[in-house]
Amino acid sequence: MAKSESKNGANIGSASLILIFIVLCLGTFGLLSLSSAKNDLDLAERNGRSVSGFYRADAEGETFLAKVQTALDDGLAKNKENPEPYLQEVLGSAWLSDEQCAALDIAMEEGQALSVRLHLSWENGQGKLSILQWKVYNQIEYEIDQDMPVWDGS
Known about the structure:
Layout: H1 2-78, H2 84-91, E1 95-96, E2 101-107, E3 112-123, E4 126-138
């Protein structure tokens, strides 16, 4: 009888070890899943902020486009030959008279900006507005730190 009890004891021990190993594996995979889900949530929130920032800047650009179009139409209504003084008055520093352009930089997140440049032309009392540039660019020049502090032996 003593032999049969020792066999059962050994079988219970190996089953317990396997069960403990399985529980540890499942616990580890559970923690890895939680960590991955947290990283995915952080990435989605950053992406959401970036996209909403872009659409906010794009809406401001559309508002600026409408303002310039209205200023051009009103300027041509006042003076069909040369609406430039009226454009300078309404648009202020956004009007670049030497290039006959209206330009605006709209700040976004992460050091980016939306650059809007509009070219205005007029002939025979007819105004024409064309978009020269509507793009996102980095306002801040950044450098990647490639320094690697290595022990020199001293």
